[in-house]
Design goal:
There is one protein chain. Strands 1-2-6-3 form a 4-stranded antiparallel beta sheet. A two-stranded antiparallel ribbon has the order 4-5. The longest helix has 12 residues. The chain has one domain: RRM (RNA recognition motif) domain (Alpha-Beta Plaits), CATH 3.30.70.330. It starts with a helix and ends with a helix. It is 28% helix and 36% strand. Strand 4 and strand 5 form a beta hairpin.
Length: 96
């Protein structure tokens, strides 16, 4: 897999922005990607050093519209922590 296929998009929420101040960033990643692949992809794309990666699978939620109902898609979330001597990711700096 290519690095751009592993990192799908950054997660921009109030909670993730608070973590960005401590060099903890949140991304939506490919469901089949493991922690090592995610760490290498973040280092390659953003040019930073990754200390650790935590992942979790987000289950789809039940949604209804009238009589019809279905589930939103399931996806994988990764919390990436950078090393103390690493530079910060510029993309998140503009959001704060």
């Amino acid at each position: 897999m290519v690095a751009q296929d592993i990192i799908i998009r950054p997660i921009i929420t109030e909670k993730s922005m608070l973590g960005a101040a401590e060099k903890k960033y949140t991304f939506e990643v490919a469901k089949k990607a493991n922690k090592i692949e995610i760490a290498k992809a973040v280092e390659e794309i953003f040019g930073v050093k990754v200390a650790k990666v935590n992942t979790l699978n987000v289950r789809g939620k039940l949604r209804r519209q009238g009589r019809n109902q279905g589930y939103t898609r399931s996806w994988k979330k990764a919390y990436v922590t950078l090393t103390q001597d690493s530079k910060e990711i510029e993309f998140f700096e503009g959001m704060m």
